[in-house]
Structures are given as C-alpha cells and as structure tokens.
C-alpha cells in the first residue's frame, strides 16, 4: 500500500487521526495505520497518542477479552500522570464517568442490565410514531424552500427530538434539551457549557419523574430493580443520549447519501422500505458512524496479535478500518451483519433495533415527503466532521420539489390515536 505523501505525522512520527487532514483523507490515514500491523500508534488529539486496532480479527479478540482489557479510563496512564492536556477535545468522551460505558465486570453487568431492560421497554410502534412526527416537524420547516442541508436541518436534530420524548421531557424542557445537546455536540467553544446545561436538565427531569412517574426512560430507570441512585440514573441517561445522537445522525446522513448517489439504488427509491434497509446496512459497512471508539485499557503489559500493548495505554477499535479490512473476503457483500459498526463483546451497542427504527423511519418519512430529491454537490469524497471518534458528514446539501408546509403538518397528525 502506498501512503499519500501529504499526510502529516505527529511529533512521535505517528499517523494523525484528527483535524483537517484526517477529515479529508480518513481512508488514506487508515492505510497509513495498517502499515504498522493489526494495530498501530496514532495521535488522536494534539499531544495525545493511542493504539488503534485496524484488523478485524484483532479487534474482535480484544473486544471479547475483558479479563485483559478494561473500559475504566481511570487506568489511562498518560491521563493519571498529567500528560493529557486538561482541555483536550478527547476528554469529554474518554474521561471517566460512572456510566455503563466506562464500567467493567460486576459494575458493568448491573448498569447494563438497567440499560438493556429500560431500552427494551420502548415500544417499537410508539418509537416509529414519535420518529415519524419528529421527522415531519423537521421536514415542514424546509419543505417550502426546495433546498436544505440534510445534516443541519434534519439528521442532526431528529434523534434529539426523539430522545426528548422518550426521556419524558415536558415540551418546554424538550426545547431546552434539544438546544443544550445541539451545543454539546457542536465543536464550538460553548460545548462544555452545553454539557453542563444538559446534565442540569437531566437532574431537573429526574426530580420531576420522582414526583410524577410516567411511561418514559427516566421513570423506568429510576424504578429499575438495580436500585440506581439519582446520580447513577443521570449518568446512564447522559450516556444513552451522548452515545446515540451523533452516530444515529451520521447513519441517516450516509444512508441518504448512498440512496441519492449510488447508482445501484437509482430509480428504486420508490421501492421504499427494502431499498432504505439495504442502504442502511451498506452504510454500516462502508461508513461506520463510530469511526474509532470502543476505548479499552490493558490491565497489564500484554500483546495483541503480536503488537506490544503497554498497561494503561488507550486502545481504540477502528470500526471504520476493521470493516474495510483488506483481509475480509472480497465477495462478502453488505447483507450479512458481521461488521463491527455496533462493536462486539460486553459493550456492544444495546440499542441496535431502536437506532434502526429511528434511522429507517426518519429516512422513509423524508423521502416520502420531499420529492425529486437530489444531492446538490458532485464531489465523490464527502468532507467529515473533525475529531477521531465519529465518521459524520459535515453537510448534505440537497434540492427537492418545494411543497406547502401545511400539507406536511396535516400528515404529522398522530396515527390511530396511539399517542
Ligand atoms: C438510539 C440510538 C443509540 C443509543 C441509545 C445507543 C446507546 C449506547 C450505549 C448506552 C452504549 C454503551 C454500552 C456499554 O458500554 O455497555 C453504546 C455503545 C455503542 N454504540 Fe450505541 N447507541 C445508539 C446508536 C448507535 C449507532 C447508530 C451506532 C453506530 C452504528 C452505535 C454504535 C455503538 C458502539 C460502536 C458502541 C460501543 C462503544 C464502546 O464500547 O465504547 N450506537 N450505545
């Protein structure tokens, strides 16, 4: 494999998995990493280095070896010894919180059982209906313009509207939640304030649902047999929203891109559900929404498929690179589910079917309402948002036939009195 000559390297001579060059040339950076073997060192933020696993087999082995690899980021040697800048952009996702994402062994089992049981209580029918109404609300805001950015105007906000309702936010709180999360997931300097506002809002919501329990995730979490404290409940809800919003938005964006660009879908958009499902499955293989994540720390010095792994070093799985591993059979296709987009092992995403309902219903609703939709850019390479963790398009400009917003508002009426 040749390495693109313009790619920068870190002060330690490692590939750079962040910033403008990574956002523009991520596939070449994965090739650069593969040259080091099944896992290689990369700079994931200025001055912060991690091992990144690019080989699928090595990734699966690590994800299924919790006795050797832990999720608890308090084991992170460079962080403990002050070598990670306090304002590093990777800390909001890698810094420890008392949530399922950073827990191991029995603690993880307890928090995960609460997460799994509460997520399982979401009725698929109700989820579809919430998503359809939320999608119609967003579509009605752009319908008359005949053009939109499907990321900013649709995909980024859709999961937030859905989560606000699933969490049981009254409508004034829902608007504040959407706003604080939009700031939190932005890369703006206000992101830290957005995180504080969102946590404060969850605290308010927990107090409210103690007084008035409802049919929602917050009340279910508070009432779960695991007996979570208010603080633990807050962190599980924060984790569910934090882990769910950007990947779901990115997934919607990539599947729409495939549907609008890829010739194999051309002319079959009207075929509906099957076509959308095929595009969603393919997007998980070729554009894994979590690009590099599943951060683990070796509990002791070890090696992974021959690569030395020092104790306390962060080891990330490149879900994006593992899914495009040249060692995979060439004729694998996209219909099987052996990709790593949802990760694997004890921390595999607990919300696969719920995220699928949101993404599929959202896309179907948009395509159903906005006719003759076309991408407004011709570039083959879609620019990505900065940062090592997510593979998310910056923007998805489209044009479509303008339509009266009132007609869409009529379509947003609840179905069959289910709400
Ligand atoms: C409804 C939307 C979603 C929710 C509520 C959600 C929630 C979660 C939660 C709570 C975890 C932590 C599980 C644990 O540590 O035991 C997790 C992990 C994960 N999720 Fe999701 N998720 C959503 C959508 C997605 C999407 C669309 C993707 C990408 C296709 C994704 C990929 C992942 C991955 C790769 C992990 C493993 C993270 C790690 O080990 O560090 N998730 N998710």
Q: What features would you describe in this structure?
A:
It contains 17 helices and ten strands. It has 419 residues and is an alpha+beta fold. The strands form three sheets. A five-stranded mixed sheet has the order 1-2-8-5-3. A three-stranded antiparallel sheet has the order 4-10-9. Helix 7 crosses helix 9 (158-166). It folds into two domains: 1-65 and 67-98 and 291-340, 2-Layer Sandwich (Uridine Diphospho-n-acetylenolpyruvylglucosamine Reductase, domain 2); 104-288 and 341-419, Cytochrome p450. The structure holds protoporphyrin IX containing FE.
Query: What is the level 1 CATH name of the largest domain?
Result: Mainly Alpha
What is the total domain count? 2
Q: Structural class given helices, strands, pairing?
A: alpha+beta
Bound molecules: protoporphyrin IX containing FE
Please give the largest β-sheet.
5 strands, mixed
So, the CATH homologous superfamily of the largest domain?
A: Cytochrome P450
Radius of gyration: 21 Å
CATH architecture of the largest domain: Orthogonal Bundle
Mean pLDDT, to the nearest integer, reads 92
Strand order of the largest sheet: 1-2-8-5-3
Note the run of SSEs as H and E.
Answer: HHEEHEHHHHEHHHHHHHEEEEHHEEH
Poorly predicted parts: none
Number of helices: 17
The share of residues in extended strands comes to 5-15%
Query: Which geometry do the CA atoms define?
Result: globular
Q: Remind me, CATH topology of the largest domain?
A: Cytochrome p450
User: Between the first and last Cα atoms, what is the distance in angstroms?
Assistant: 55 Å
């Amino acid at each position: 494999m040749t390495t693109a000559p313009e790619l920068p390297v870190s002060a330690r001579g490692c590939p750079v998995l962040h910033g403008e060059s990574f956002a523009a040339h991520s596939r070449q950076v994965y090739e650069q990493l593969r040259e080091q073997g099944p896992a290689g060192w990369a700079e994931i933020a200025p001055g912060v280095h991690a091992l990144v696993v690019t080989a699928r087999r090595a990734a699966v082995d690590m994800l299924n070896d919790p006795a050797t690899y832990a999720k608890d980021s308090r084991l992170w040697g460079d962080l403990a010894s002050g070598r990670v800048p306090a304002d590093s952009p990777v800390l909001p996702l890698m810094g420890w919180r008392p949530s399922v994402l950073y827990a191991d062994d029995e603690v993880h089992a307890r928090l995960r059982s609460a997460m799994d049981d509460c997520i399982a209580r979401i009725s698929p029918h109700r989820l579809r209906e919430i998503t359809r109404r939320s999608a119609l609300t967003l579509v009605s805001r752009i319908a008359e313009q005949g053009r939109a950015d499907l990321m900013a105007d649709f995909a980024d906000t859709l999961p937030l509207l859905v989560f606000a309702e699933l969490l049981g936010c009254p409508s004034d709180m829902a608007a504040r939640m959407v706003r604080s999360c939009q700031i939190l997931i932005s890369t703006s300097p206000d992101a830290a304030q957005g995180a504080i506002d969102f946590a404060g809002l969850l605290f308010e919501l927990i107090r409210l649902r103690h007084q008035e329990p409802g049919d929602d995730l917050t009340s279910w979490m508070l009432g779960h047999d695991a007996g979570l404290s208010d603080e633990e409940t807050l962190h599980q809800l924060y984790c569910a929203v934090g882990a769910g919003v950007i990947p779901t938005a990115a997934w919607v964006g990539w599947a729409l891109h495939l549907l609008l660009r890829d010739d194999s879908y051309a002319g079959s958009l009207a075929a509906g559900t099957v076509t959308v499902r095929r595009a969603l499955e393919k997007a998980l293989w070729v554009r894994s929404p979590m690009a590099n994540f599943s951060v683990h720390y070796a509990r002791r010095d070890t090696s992974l498929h021959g690569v030395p792994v020092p104790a306390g070093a962060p080891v990330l799985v490149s879900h994006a690179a593992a899914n495009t591993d040249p060692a995979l059979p060439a004729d694998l296709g996209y219909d099987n589910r052996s990709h790593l987009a949802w990760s694997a092992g004890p921390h595999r995403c607990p919300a696969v079917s719920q995220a699928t309902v949101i993404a599929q219903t959202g896309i179907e609703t948009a395509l159903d309402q906005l006719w003759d939709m076309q991408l407004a850019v011709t570039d083959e390479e879609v620019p990505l948002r900065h940062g090592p963790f997510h593979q998310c398009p910056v923007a998805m400009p489209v044009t479509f036939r303008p339509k009266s917003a009132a007609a869409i508002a009529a379509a947003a009426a609840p179905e069959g009195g289910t709400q």
